[in-house]
Structure formats: C-alpha cells, structure tokens
Write a structure and sequence with these properties.
18% of the residues lie in helices and 27% in strands. By secondary structure, it is an alpha/beta fold. The protein has a single domain, classed as Ribonuclease Inhibitor (Leucine-rich repeat, LRR (right-handed beta-alpha superhelix), Alpha-Beta Horseshoe), CATH 3.80.10. Strands 1, 2, 3, 5, 6, 8 and 10 form a seven-stranded mixed β-sheet that branches. Strands 4-7-9-11-12 form a five-stranded parallel β-sheet, with no helix packed on it. A hairpin with a 2-residue loop joins strand 5 and strand 6.
C-alpha cells in the first residue's frame, strides 16, 4: 500500500507541474516572415562586395571583391545579414579592385553608373545586360582612357542603345557602343 501511495503521489505532483508550467515559444525567425531591408552606408555582402543598402531592398555597389580574373560578372543581387538586395547602381570606385579584368558584365538590374564608377585599369569591354538605357553621371569614366573601350548592349533596342550612347557621350565616354 505504501508503494502505491508513493507512486500515486509522484504521478499527481508530476501532472500538476506539467499542467501548471507556462509554455514559452522559442525566439527563432519565423519561416513565413523574412528579415526586412535596412538602410546602411557601408555593408559587407556575403560574397565580399561592399554595398550601400536602402530600406526599399535596393543596393548601390560601392566595391567589388578583389579579383585577378580577366572576366568578371557582377551579381544582380547581394545578401547582407540574411537580407537580399537588388543591385541597382554602380557606385563611386566600384570596379577599382578589378586589377586585371578586361571584361566586366553588368546585370540587368543596374540602372545607373555613378561618377568614377568605371575605373578598372585594364578594362576594355563593358557588357550591359539591361533592356533600358542606363543613367550615366558626368565623369563616370574619370581617369580612364575610353577611346579603345567597347560597351556591348545585346538586350537593348536600337532606340534605347542610341539614348544610352548619348548619355555616355555626355558623361565623357569616347569609345564605341555596340549591340
């Protein structure tokens, strides 16, 4: 009888503790809600680039990862602290770390070339995958001899390519623009 009473008492105490204990939800990120974009002046992306981010989910590429490759393709998105941003601008000095690159391919998401953004020393060909003409700030090619440089725009219509060539000329570009 004593064993039975002890077992019953243990069961009652265990049950009361389980039922009376508060339940806490784990503080983890919900799979249905993503991290929100945050505005930052200088943020390091997971792939080594430095970007300036905005709250609307866009980013200005301020510096690419150092590379000695001859051909480099810029990604259309970057990830910073678990948040994906669309790269929309090539910022000042963005290509300066590309010491041996002769060809750089820009994604379709790029809409603007900022001043002094295209300064890679050995760059000869810039491929733009956008369907629309880019906005080009004055002196985007400052310090770069562009006479022998070629900009290829395979996805632009003739009208857009003409508008882009006009913007490039206004910014100081002296090379050729091809399809």
């Amino acid at each position: 009888m004593f064993k039975f009473m002890r077992r019953a008492l243990a069961t009652v105490i265990t049950a009361s503790l389980v039922l009376a204990a508060p339940v806490y939800a784990a503080e983890t990120a919900s799979p249905t809600t993503a991290n929100k974009p945050v505005a930052q002046e200088s943020a390091a992306a997971t792939t080594g680039e430095t970007v300036k981010t905005t709250t609307d989910g866009t980013a200005t590429l301020t510096s690419v990862a150092k590379s000695t490759k001859k051909s480099v393709t810029i990604a259309d998105t970057v990830e910073v602290n678990g948040v994906k941003y669309t790269v929309t601008e090539l910022g000042t000095g963005a290509l300066k770390n590309l010491t041996k690159a002769t060809t750089v391919t820009l994604p379709a998401s790029i809409t603007k070339l900022c001043k002094k953004s295209v300064t890679a020393k050995k760059l000869k060909t810039l491929k733009v995958n956008s369907k629309k003409a880019l906005t080009v700030e004055k002196n985007a090619f400052k310090g770069k001899n562009t006479k022998k440089m070629v900009i290829k725009c395979p996805k632009m219509s003739k009208k857009e390519r003409k508008a882009f060539a006009k913007a490039l000329k206004k910014a100081g570009f002296k090379g050729t623009v091809k399809k």
